[in-house]
Amino acid sequence: MISVQACLDGILLGILFALIAYGMALQWGVMNIINIAQGDLVILGGYIAYFMYLYGIHPAWGVIVSPIIMYFVGIAIYKLVINKVVDRDLFISILATFGISILFMQLMNFAFGADVVLANSDYGTTMLFNSNVVLPNSKIFSAFISILFAICLVIYMKKSKLGRAIRATAQNARAAKILGVDTEKVYAATFGINAALCGVAGALISITFTIHPYMGLPYTIRSFMIVIVAGLGNLPGVAMSGMGLGVFEEFADYILGTEFRIGSVFLLLVLILVYRRFKLSRKREYLK
Amino acid sequence: MKINKIIISFISAAIILLSTSVVSFAKVVGDKIILGAAISLTGKYSSNGVHTQNGYNMAVDRINSMGGVKVGGKTYKFDIIYYDDESNPKRAAQLAERLISQDGVEFMLGPYSSGLTKAIAPVTEKYGVPMVEANGASRSLFTKGYKYLFAVLAPANLYLDVAIDLAVEKNNGKGVTVAMAFEQDAFSQDVRLGVLDAIKRTGSKKVIDDKLPKELNDMAATLVKVKQMKPDVLVVSGHTKGALTAIRQISEMKVDVPMLAMTHCDAAKLSKQHGKNSQYALCASQWHKTLTYKDDFFKDGMTYDADFTKEFGYAPPYQAAESSAALLVFKDAFERANSFDQKKVRDALAATNMQTFYGNIKFAPGGQNVDKPMVLFQVMCDDAGKCENKVVAPTKWASAKLIHPIPSWSKR
Q: What is the ipTM for the molecules in this complex?
């Protein structure tokens, strides 16, 4: 039963992280930008849901309101900063988004205060297997909403004009431009969509965990790892690696102890990277 | 030409030197005793930094309006130079240097948090500047042999050991099983050491000993273990994030434990944020308004609570109360030393033995206050869902009876 519990906990946690990673993979693939401020956008989205909760609105509505606001925040960040670094070296974009991250942390601290806060959904608990497995409904809700948004996005990317333009730009920005795609617009929309996804994830985190102005970085690192493991442009891979890492984390916690939880995830990352390199080098030999 | 240049450089150097020495404050200017403090007014500790500053200001106003400090037959008033340390230890150490070497401050008040106090203490020690601090509880502060550091609060290792004693008492003196979940930071690990001592002393047994990573806000795995092992006591310490996460996940996962003890409930506004879900949690606190300690300036805890609420618009957390107490200690030491000589004031501080509204204060050679026990309060809610913190231990100060064991979630 413990392994069932750990497995389900890990999957539910992983799905939520996968949503954040999904946004990161999208903009990384399209714009070649690693967004260090990803986690801070998540936290800002969380504060939107939290403030709705403070004003008596159920925080679950945050999953609708927060992405709308965050989409425009994303567009604004793009217009002010990102469009100036989008064609530059990857290092410059990392520096720029690192700066945005620090700015966001300080602004949130200034505006919302340094207290740790949360929004209560009062969703209750689901008991399974004769109460041996316990799942908070807020986590189930978070996973469900994350999957819903991910599916909608995949359909949007496949069917809509903008989605096709985004995919075309990701494949070859220059060719897309020649064929009449307004890449500037595509970049702005991509950054906006990423921020909106962060908004959804933030609202869900305010319901499931806690938020604090300086809590963004772990989410950035986690989504970065998920994307690295999955590989760029591999959206089903992001979902799988998100869930896989979540489950691995829970088991590592259970078997090795909580203090080794994060460490074991990083160890896994190193092993995966070494394995990839090994695989690639073999491929190269074969090609010879 | 060359001589002219030398003369000009000499004169400008002299002007710069003179101007800086004129700008410098002295330790005592006119009838003012100037204290220095680096406080976290921005950054992650800013909430508690503001509580600390409000506590200091409240005491300064009160002491000044009630006759000030009498030294050598003359009356002096307190004044504080504040700098914002941005919740950053390096910045705090720089500001301490600046306060002492540029502003000429000769007596310091502590910053907020153990980490920042640790950064400042070597600086004040180097210059021989007495520092009374009210918000650094880490045990390691008091084992370094600092001579000029004095803390009005009880050290971190005493935060939760009283909970273990209480559980043993409820178990008819027999040892209990303890599950521990502590964040990996200096403060929480000190609390853990205290709990380990108590476990050893009472013949109890630890069944879970999890160290929570700082960046983690998910305790589900630990709580699954707790459900499995069914310990008598669950102790959690991970600052406000730890307290909020623990209550959220314990209530969601319906984890039943006979006793739940934690730190930082006050700062986390536990009962406000979690309402009835936080009921029955035991919380370690340095101070509570219902304690019956007394002094001439703030009378007692209830009066302090009312006055503070009137002035700042919110009830004082213990961080504010202990900060106010630091000023009372300084006043007492200045008057006993009857001098502003740093060594004499330091010796007077070391000999402090007084009662304040916040508690008794007497310093051990390491600088920690050994005369003030921690209190445990329990969150108790009425049927309407209004929750209040009531002191349940030590028995001498208890204003309510401990509810033990905590009713199971199915019966709530």
A: 0.80
